[in-house]
UniProtKB/TrEMBL annotation:
The keyword Metal-binding does not apply. SUPFAM superfamilies: Restriction endonuclease-like. It comes from the Bacteria. This is Endonuclease, Uma2 family (Restriction endonuclease fold). Gene3D superfamilies: tt1808, chain A (3.90.1570.10). The keyword Transferase does not apply.
């Protein structure tokens, strides 16, 4: 085993690590953290959300990404959101920087991180109009929607009115096929 000094990685070192590693890592303040695997229901919710968002994004000239695309939030912080919608030019061949919508599917292993750490960081980009947290064990969740006064927390109802992509999604369709 090779010894190395414990220090924050630079952006270049992190991107090189991700190119070579069989595991994905998120980078938090320069330190890489291996990502946990996801269950079947988690994957179905992500797939359903992408399928529902894609036509809305296409109509507005936007892109929808899922799980394997990095979001750079600062020089030393990168995440892999479960889903993100981006309008405007691509930021970089390996990551995006200006999402209008970010979604995470909660799981017991990630819920605290998604509700605290990621919440405080995801709400920073001026481009972000909504941060969507979806429950994995039952239909439901919360949307943090940008308003002129700041972000407002909205519990999900039967129909989700989306920010930025200007459409609606039936909550039942997001959870189609989920046990």
């Amino acid at each position: 085993m090779t010894e190395r000094a414990l220090r924050p990685l630079t952006e270049e070192e992190y991107l090189a690590l991700e190119r070579e590693s069989p595991l994905r890592h998120e980078l938090l303040e320069g330190f890489p953290h291996a990502m946990a695997g996801a269950g079947l229901d988690h994957n179905l919710i992500v797939t359903n959300l992408v399928a529902l968002l894609k036509p809305l994004a296409r109509a507005k000239g936007c892109r929808v990404y899922s799980e394997t695309v990095k979001l750079k939030l600062s020089e030393d912080t990168f995440y892999y959101p479960d889903v993100m919608a981006v309008c405007g030019p691509k930021a970089h061949p390996l990551y995006e920087t200006s999402p209008c919508l970010v979604a995470e599917v909660l799981s017991p292993n990630t819920e605290v991180q998604d509700r605290r750490e990621k919440l405080s960081r995801y709400l920073r980009p001026p481009s972000l109009l909504g941060y969507l947290l979806l429950e994995s064990g039952r239909p439901g969740g919360v949307l943090y929607r940008r308003t002129p006064e700041g972000f407002r927390e909205e519990a999900l109802e039967e129909t989700l009115v989306l920010p930025c992509l200007e459409g609606t999604l039936p909550l039942a369709a997001l959870y189609e096929g989920v046990a």
